[in-house]
Amino acid sequence: MTTTNLAFIKDSSAEWLETQYNNRKRVPEAAGLLDRWAAESAATRARLKPGTALPYGSWGEKLDVFGVTGRRSPRQRAPVFVFIHGGYWRSLTRSDHSFAVEALVKAGACAVVPDYTLCPTVTIPDIARQIAEAVAWTYQNIARYGGDPQHMVVAGHSAGGHLTAMMMGCNWQQLDPALPANLVTKGLSISGLYDLAPLQNVPFLKGDLRITQDHIDRASPMHWARPTHGELHLAVGGDESEEFLRHQAALAQAWGDMRVPVAKVLPGLHHFNIVETLNQPGSVLQGMALDLLGLSPTSR
Prior knowledge:
38% of the residues lie in helices and 17% in strands. By secondary structure, the chain is an alpha/beta fold. Strands 1-2-4-3-5-6-7-8 form an eight-stranded mixed sheet.
């Protein structure tokens, strides 16, 4: 299989699927990186002092809000960066990912980092509903933290990248008639997965995710009708598996240039260190985020 083949081979062996999707096995230093993320996130919260464990939605889940700390007029509301964590919908928490928003907050953004209930307690469509409620909460409440609800970027890594794409196609008025139909118009998906079908048979995932055909139909953005508004920008590491590269290429093809105007493969980065570059000045990924937020170099 090559990265130019956009069709998934449905009879792929369990062994092959494991090599493609088990990122902790692909990256030997993954455990140490995750420990570092947790430590750096605790330090980030100590420095930025966010509003923590704020309840949202109908499930009683929590989110953290990082108010504005950058050089910005107090009368000017800040662009909002909602960051959705990864972990294959079955592990990790918002508290492991505070580090991912620090540089953007210091540049003048307001950031929101939500939790969600993990599989197998809930299904992936349930998680998408929770994240939609977190985004709706942000729209309705972020002004009190200095954020601009009219200028929101939703972003996420891995499973969070999938959930970001889900937000681009959400029927917001079905969730709440008071919400605008085009609530989310800008997204940044990092190393996302956009078709649940291959994950049904991945050995280390299938027991927790319990993906059904209904889940595939409802929560595989790659197979949706093309969204009618907004821009989703994509990035994946050049050292990631063929399947992660394929997911990105296939979504870009399915949604077209108007909806996916940017789809970058970042050389030398794997599934874990790619997200760390959000904090690296001059990195491609940080530049993508700042451009979506409308933060110029003079704001940084």
